[in-house]
Structure prediction request, 618 residues.
Amino acid sequence: MDSDENIRQSVREKVALLPDSPGVYQFLNAEGIVIYVGKAKNLKRRVSSYFVSRADHTRKVQVMVRQIADLRHIVVGSEADALLLENNLIKELQPRYNILLKDSKSYPWIVVKNEPFPRIFSTRKFVRDGSAYFGPYSSVTMQRAVLELIRGLYPLRTCKLNLSPQAVSRGTYSVCLEYHIGNCKGPCVGYQSEEDYAGSIAGAKNILRGDLRPAEEYFTAEMKRLAEGLHFEQAARVKDKLEMLSSYSSRSVIVSATLTNLEVVYVLNDEGASFCNHMRIVHGAVVHSFTFEMRGRLDESPDELLAFALGQVFSQAREEGIPLPREVIVPMMPDAELFPTVNFTVPQRGDKLELLRLAEKNCKLARLEKFKQIEKTDPDRHTDRIMAKMQKDLNLPVEPRYIECFDNSNIQGTNPVASCVVFRDGRPSKKDYRHFNIKTVVGANDFASMEEVLTRRYGRLIEEGQPLPDLIVIDGGKGQLSFAFAALEKLGLRGKVSVVGLAKRMEEVYYPGDPFPHYLDKTGESLRILMHIRDEAHRFGITFHRQKRSINFLKSELENVPGLGRTSIERLLKKYRTLSRMARTPEAELAELIGAGRARILLDYLGNRSSGDKRPES
Prediction:
């Protein structure tokens, strides 16, 4: 395989590992230069489209695709964030195949102007004059909707007059139409105090920051007041604004007026893999984000990994002629002596914390892509890693290569059944699944039913000399687990088989004798496998329970037919399974099975001979 084919194969493998998430992708040529930046609602679907032979690809796109030697991607929270980040990166990188964006094409902001009786309006010019800027907004429609909400809720001035105390006191202004129609309270002539106006500005800023509770409370109260006064049209208009408020989403940190020039370095070390995401923010905009893997050799601590990552980031910056940043956001404080000229911040809230979470998300996705690649190229290594991880997370004496999970199913005590599903090496082994009819328990008693099923299951395995599972998972909390553990103790299996309970509501893991729940990583593979086997046991049990209920219903229905005995009913159920099939069967065929007289009586009962009315299939 030549070098070009190796490059194409490498790119195809990276495309296959892309997540189904919104984000930004970058195509690089053989020299490592970014030649194109694009946004996507679904990264995998969008990037894959470039590498499929399509007639609608332009000549320019075909030429660009032939130059792609590598690709990078950045995952963000929404499609709007992807649009903003794409805008930042195109301006910063000036890729050859992108339409170059000028500053005049910047996205709009909403500004609260730093002046007496501040105005609130849209602008595309970001001027650091003490004014408060909110946004930017990737959708002009959304921005206009927010401004309309604010102006409808708070009567603020829209004129450009100088409303300094001296100008107002001279009495040179007069009220305009906006005052007469109720959109302004007339601060230009002293009808509204600065204190009262400041209260309206504070409320408007709450909306712009994403705190919608005051506005929602106001609109709700106003809508009820108008409705009680029988002003239904006005109430409907207020309701429309309330619905618009509920659909309004808070601003993005991809571009933020509260941030200046800083960098973010996040390190993730988990399951034997270490990744670092580095983001650079210039004038409040993310202009660089890159995730790379670090290969540890000596079980390095998180502090050592962070120091190594910072060294790599700063060394690369020096090579590019970029000075050391004044502030770096990190997940933990590094050794101050290593980088004495840099101010490190571990954020607790706000936009800086959101940036750190975004960096963490990119690290976790890079780790997931790495594991997917290992699963594809080396499945045995992938399985070994997961089993070792489960053993560590669940504190088990051995790797859980063989897992069994049990679930009960009944409705108000009728047709009680139980299911047992088996996982081997983290995957379902459906040939080993088992169903159980509850025999000794009367009524809806899940605890006693679980005890019966475990006693029967493992009593038989012990009697036949079959291998026991490495882990037993019980669908339920402390109560279910205690009865299950008691049954295993009676069989002499205490200490020989590990058993845990998995409660559904909070995905809590319980251990025998421990009243307190344990929590696994919500995004980790250990909990994912436990949830998978629990859900599979529930699905398998419900399916069997429905089949049994259906058969019992048919039996009881057929027992109402005069002249049909147990033997005839069993023959009918075995051959036809449903009442509708019996109703559609010719009388002669039924007569061969159960006799001519009983066949005629059955068809009369089902309404097939006289009226053609067919009973619903059960």
Q: What stands out?
A: Residues 50 and 61 are 8 Å apart (CA to CA). The first strand starts at residue 23 and ends at 28. The chain is about 45% helix and 15% strand. Residues 525-558 form the longest helix (34 residues).
